[in-house]
Amino acid sequence: MQIGMIGLGRMGANMVRRLMKGGHECVVHDRNPEAVAALRAEGATGATSLDDLVAQLAAPRAVWVMVPSGAATEETIASLAERLAPRDTIIDGGNSYFKDDVRRAREVGKRGLHYVDAGTSGGVWGAARGYCLMVGGPAEAVERIEPVLRTLAPGRGDIPATPGRDGKSTAEQGYLHCGPAGAGHFVKMIHNGIEYGLMQAYAEGFDILRSASSPRLPEDMRYTLALPDIAELWRRASVVSSWLLDLTSIALAADPDLAGFSGVVQDSGEGRWTVQAAIDEEVPADVLTASLYTRFRSRQQHNYGEKLLSAMRKQFGGHQEPK
What we know:
By secondary structure, this protein is an alpha/beta fold. Helices cover 48% and strands 12% of the residues. It contains 14 helices and 8 strands. The chain has an 8-stranded mixed sheet, with helices on both faces. It starts with a strand and ends in a 6-residue tail after the last helix.
C-alpha cells in the first residue's frame, strides 16, 4: 500500500522503515531535510513540502501524521486538509487529546475527508518489535489502512494467545479498531496513565531495595543488594515481569547508581488527561493520580526512584531529561 508519513522523528522514521520492510511504498516529509534524505537513501520517496507529498500520492490518499501533539499537530492537519481531496484519509499517530480528535474529525469531515486517530505505543524499539496500535475513526477508513496497521503491529505469532479467546479479534495481532473518532487516543491515554502507575511501582520498589543498607536500620537487618541482578532475576518467571522491567534491567546494568540521571521526570500530557477522565467519570484512580503527582514533585526534589523513572523513559521512548 502507498502511504505518506509526515514527521520523521524517533518514532516516525522507524515506522517508515518497518513499513518499507513490509513492502509498502512510503512518501515522506519532515521539516528537517536531512531526515528526509536519510530515508530516501533507504528506499522511501522524499517530499520537499506538503504540496509535493500530496502530489506524489495516488487517490484516495492516506497520510500518517507523526509530529508532536499540540500546535504542531493542529497546524499540520489543518494545512494537510486544505490540500487533500474527498475520501482521502488523515491519520494522527501522535499523543493527541481525544477531544481534539472528535473536533478535528468533524472539521475535516466537512471536506469529505476521513480522520483516523491511532494511538501508537512501542517507542524507539518499535521498528524491530512492532507497535501496539489503538485506532479510532470510521470503519471504512480503518479497513482501507488495515494493511498498514498489520505491518506496523507485532503480529499474531509474537505473543501466545490468551486461552479461551476465539482468535477473531485483531487485538491478538497488535492493533484494534476501538470505536469512532477519539476512541483510539482515549484508549492510548488510559494506557499511558497505567504506564505511569507501573513505572512508579517499580521505582518505589527499587528505591526500598536500595535503602535496605541504611544506617538507620539495625545492623543485622541491613542488606547491600545487587539491584541490576534483582531486576534481571525478576525478568525470569516472576509475576512482576514485563517489558518495563526488561528496560529497567537494561538501565541498571548500564548505570547501577543512575549517576547519569538527575531524577527530573516529565509528563507528556496523557497522565493528566487520564486523571481528568477519572474525575469526569467519578472513577477512583488513586495509584494513577499519585504517580502523576510524584512526577510533579520530582521537579523539586530527587530520589533514586525518580532517577529510575527517568532511566525507564529514556529506555522505551528515548526521552531526554531537561538540562
